[in-house]
Design brief:
Elements (H helix, E strand, L loop, with lengths): L16 E3 L12 E4 L2 E3 L2 E3 L5 E5 L30 E2 L13 E3 L3 E2 L5 E2 L5 E4 L16 H4 L9 E3 L12 E4 L2 E2 L5 E2 L5 E5 L24 E3 L1 E3 L14 E7 L2 E12 L3 E9 L2 E9 L7 E10 L5 E9 L4 E10 L1
Parallel strand pairs: 21-23
Antiparallel strand pairs: 1-5, 2-5, 3-4, 6-10, 7-10, 8-9, 11-15, 12-15, 13-14, 16-20, 17-22, 18-19, 19-22, 20-21, 23-24
Length: 328
């Protein structure tokens, strides 16, 4: 990408890069110095240096070397899917707009059951308590359940027939023990779950749905950013930000020092009063490189309550954070 074009010997052509606080006169005519940022799954990553790239930014065309981070004027971010819109099955599909979640395109069959839908997903506000655009009894029972109980809802009754919405079943509302084993209430207490669908989903764990969750620990999809800069002088532990949305707890572990060549996967064990989170390393072997990274993961379907959340990182070999989390 670093070029010295024949028609401007002393300056940089399109895609040429340089590192200098002084930018005037460094790019060929018709080009301008832009911050050399690149898009990542978590936004834009910009170098921690006066690094620039020469681009014709502002000409209305998203051309070579340009992207939504180094030239937003020409390269608008990909359009997100609005409420009720569908996400097609294509490579690199669009994402739901902020505040929306992706749900299946399943629909009621008119006889009390559900018609499974394989393919497109829908973007909705599922979980906000209102049966909104694109939602129905089958793809968002929590909002559209009517008199039946949705995912993760509990009840106390010896008679379990018809209590849970379609595709859900009542299972004993047991918890993972504080130390080991399972703790089950001495009452006819149940929780509505899709137990038996082969997926260890929200609210499910080894004690209430062992057939889907054979292990106490649940590992969830984890995003690890590109290298965000030199870790020299930084706090190796980084910082932790916690966001609670409904019954989902999102962890944003920012600017943590990690090995460049290892993967990170967030796993957690939900217990009464505690959420034990482990950032596991994998994909080795490690290399002689360390960088600052952001790690983001969501713990789905955490029951209402007050929790002591601990974050243990395998690379660091210790608990990095202990926080109090309240799930309404």
């Amino acid at each position: 990408r670093f070029t010295w074009p024949a028609d401007c010997w002393e300056w940089l052509g399109r895609g040429g890069q340089f590192m200098d606080f002084e930018t005037e006169g460094r790019c060929c005519e018709g080009l301008k110095p832009m911050d050399d940022c690149v898009p990542t799954e978590m936004g834009c990553a910009c170098p921690d240096c006066p690094c620039h790239i020469c681009l014709p930014c502002g000409d209305g065309e998203c051309g070579p070397f340009e992207n939504e981070c180094n030239c937003p004027a020409d390269c608008a971010p990909a359009a997100c899917v609005e409420e009720g819109g569908s996400i097609p099955v294509i490579p690199d599909p669009p994402k739901c707009c902020p505040g929306l979640v992706k749900v299946p395109c399943d629909a009621p069959d008119g006889e009390g059951g559900c018609l499974p839908c394989v393919g497109a997903s829908l973007c909705t506000k599922c979980g906000d308590g209102q049966c909104g655009k694109g939602e129905n009894l089958c793809n968002c029972p929590a909002d559209c359940g009517g008199e039946c109980l949705g995912l993760g809802e509990t009840f106390l009754d010896f008679n379990t027939a018809g209590k849970c919405c379609p595709a859900l079943k009542p299972v004993p509302d047991c918890d993972i023990g504080a130390v080991e084993g399972c703790s089950c209430p001495k009452c006819p207490c149940y929780i509505c779950l899709p137990c038996g669908d082969g997926v260890c989903g929200p609210f499910e764990h080894v004690c209430n749905c062992a057939e889907d969750c054979p292990e106490a620990e649940k590992c969830v999809p984890t995003k690890k950013s590109e290298c965000l800069g030199d870790p020299y002088g930084a706090d190796p532990a980084g910082t932790l930000k916690i966001e609670v949305s409904g019954h989902d707890v999102t962890l944003r572990h920012e600017a943590v020092v990690l090995n460049c060549c290892l993967d990170t996967t967030v796993c957690f064990t939900p217990r009464p009063g505690s959420l034990e989170v482990v950032e596991r390393q994998g994909g080795g072997p490690p290399c002689f490189c360390q960088c600052l990274f952001d790690v983001v993961a969501t713990l789905p379907g955490v029951k209402s309550g007050d929790y002591t959340l601990t974050v243990y990182n395998e690379e660091h070999g210790k608990v990095l954070f202990e926080e109090t989390v309240v799930v309404p």
